[in-house]
Design brief:
alpha/beta, Rossmann fold, 2 domains, seven-stranded mixed beta sheet, five-stranded parallel beta sheet, 42% helix
Length: 328
Amino acid sequence: MRRREFVTLLGGAAAAWPLAARAQQPERVRRIGVLMGFADPATQSYVTAFRGALTKLGWAEGSNLRTEVCWGAGDADKIRSFAKELVDLRPDAIVGQSTPVVAALARETQTIPIVFVNVADPIGSGFVVSLARPGGNLTGFMTDNSALGGKWVQLLKEIAPRTVRVALMFNPTTAVPLKFYLPSVQAAASDAGVEVNATPVHAKDEIEGVIAAQARDQGSSLIVMPDPFNGVNREEITLLAARYRVPAMYYRREFADAGGLIAYASDFAEQFPQAASYADRILKGTKPSELPVQAPVKFDLVINLKTAKALGLDVPLQLQQRADDVIE
């Protein structure tokens, strides 16, 4: 081989070495933290859906992605502790479910991108400046609008027409701030001739007392407000409402599936694949402030006819026809 050809070939091979070396470098593993407000089969399925959506977007667990999932179990102390632990890991992004979770995360970091899900009032809670332009390191997906409270009152009065008093059951340390729903609740209650009382609970052993008090007061019903505490205690609440024969309106369809009378809510589950799409965009360089907060456009009405019958309620046919799902 001529010397000139040998030098040319050698030079070409040398130029190729860095490219080959780069090709052999493993892709950087990105890390996402996930903090759930409570743990039950439904919320576990939400995380599964989130991970599945990320897989479809090209993220493979253990290959180019690692997710750290923590479960707050409706406990404010656990939520605060897990929020600090996740932030200390310095992940590339964090997904937070429920208002108390996102509040805890926001206190821990103003720099790590946070995608929230199942949050009712992100502006009132101080998470974002506006829905169109979040303005900071948080963005995500709302579950409710402020008019939803009035809808709960109207539907409860429709399915239980003897209702003249309604208790709003919530845990002050974990619930969505009551002021978000209260104007619409009070307006609808005034139109329906219903008295409304805020009824806080602070521990599981207080739930029965609240529901029993409603049973002693003829014409009283219950609205179980959006709250991880209520979500964790779903079985207890629906069983006690049935035992004491108290008509109750719920903020998640899972309550109706568990035997609750009626639920009117957005689809909590559908927000997790959407959150995966936002996380994907953030991992690829988009800032949270560039991603608008999205509000739900569809709410499902679920009626449990078996429970209605046990309570002696005759559900109007028109209401049944409006329902998205009727459990018999």
